[in-house]
Amino acid sequence: MRVLLWHVHGAWATAFVHGDHDYVVPVLPDRGPDGVGIARTYAWPKDRVTELPPEALRDAEFDVVVLQRPLELEHLAEDWLGRRPGRDVPAVYVEHNAPQGRIAEMRHPAADRDDLLLVHVTHFNALFWDAGSTPTRVIEHGVVDPGHRYSGELPRGAVVINEARRRARVTGTDLLDRFAQAAPIDLFGMDAAAMGGIEDLPQERLHAEMARRRVYLHPIRWTSLGLSLLEAMHLGMPVVALGTTEVHEAVPAEAGVVSTKVDVLADAMRRLVADREEAAQRGRAARVAALERYGLERFLADWDDVLEEVCHR
C-alpha cells in the first residue's frame, strides 16, 4: 500500500513508517512545517520512506492519505494532490492532541465527515473530542523498542518537554522548580537550552542520556499521552507522573507513582533517587507494562486493519 503523510510528530511517525507499506512524505526546500521530509534525528527505514516535493504529488498515486492537522484537511492536501481527501482518495485523520478550551466547545475539525475515518491515539482524546457523526477508532501508541538501557547511574530526574517555556502550564513547566527541591532534574527537548536544559538531541542520544538518570518525571497537565513517557518506560526507567489525561492507564502502580498531588510526587521522586534498587525494580516493571500495551507489533497490526478498512469502504 502506498501511503502519503506529512511528517508532523517525529516519534509517532517513526513508529508508523516501520510498517509494511511504502510511505511518502512531502518535502520543501526549507524543510518547514509543511515539508519536513524524512526525519534527520529519528531512525526511519531507508527502503520504506520517500520524499516528494509538492509539485510531484499531483502525478503520484496513493492508496490512502493520512491527515494530521486541520490545514491538511481544509486545503493543503487538496491543493498539493489535486484530489479531495476522502472523496477522490481514501483518507484517515489522526488526532494526536487533547482538545483545548471549554468542554462544550471541543468540536473536532473533522466532525460530521462521512468520507473520513478519525483515529485517536488515546481513549482520553476520543472521550473529550466531539466528532459528531464521523466514524472513529482508537489506536494506542506504539514505540520502536530502544531496549532495556537503564543504568540509573546519575541520581537525578529526567524530563522531556518540547517548547517548555512557551507551553508553560500545559506541560507543567511551572512545577519543575518544586520537583527540583526534591531532586536535581535535567530537562531535555526543543528549546530546553533557554531554560538551562539539554536541547534537541537525536533520538538515539536522547534515549542514552535519559537512561542514565534514575527517574523519569512526567509533569504534563494537559496533552495527549506523551511518547517520551512510553519511551522512558521501554528504557526501563521508573516513572513519577501527574495523574492527568491517560497516564493512569499507561503506568501501573508497580512501575512508579502517579498522582495529582505534587507533594506526593515530589516525595516519590526524592525516595526513588535515593534508592537505586527500588528505582531499578520499578523500572523493570515499567518496561514490562510498556512492551505489553505499547509494543510496535500491536500498533502496526492495528494500523494495517484501519488502512485496509478505509481503502475498501
Secondary-structure map with pairings?
Elements: E1 2-5, H1 10-16, E2 22-26, E3 49-52, H2 54-57, E4 64-67, H3 70-81, E5 91-95, E6 117-120, H4 123-128, E7 136-138, E8 154-160, H5 164-167, H6 176-180, E9 185-189, E10 198-199, H7 203-212, E11 213-218, H8 227-235, E12 239-242, H9 247-250, E13 256-259, H10 262-274, H11 276-294, H12 296-311
Helix pairs in contact: 8-11
Question: Biggest β-sheet: count, sense, barrel?
Answer: 7 strands, parallel
Number of strand segments: 13
Q: Determine the N-to-C terminus distance.
A: 15 Å
Taken in chain order, the helices and strands follow as EHEEHEHEEHEEHHEEHEHEHEHHH
% residues in beta strands: 15-25%
Backbone shape: globular
Order of neighbouring strands in the sheet with most strands: 3-2-1-4-5-6-7
Structure characterization notes:
It contains twelve helices and 13 strands. The chain has 313 residues and is of the alpha/beta class. The chain folds into two domains: 2-142 and 296-311; 154-294, Rossmann fold, CATH 3.40.50. The strands form two sheets. A seven-stranded parallel sheet has the order 3-2-1-4-5-6-7. It has a six-stranded parallel sheet with strand order 10-9-8-11-12-13, with helices on both faces. Helix 8 crosses helix 11 (276-294).
Q: How would you summarize this macromolecular structure in one to three sentences?
A:
With 313 residues, this protein is of the alpha/beta class. The protein has helices at residues 10-16, 54-57, 70-81, 123-128, 164-167, 176-180, 203-212, 227-235, 247-250, 262-274, 276-294, 296-311, and strands spanning 2-5, 22-26, 49-52, 64-67, 91-95, 117-120, 136-138, 154-160, 185-189, 198-199, 213-218, 239-242, 256-259.
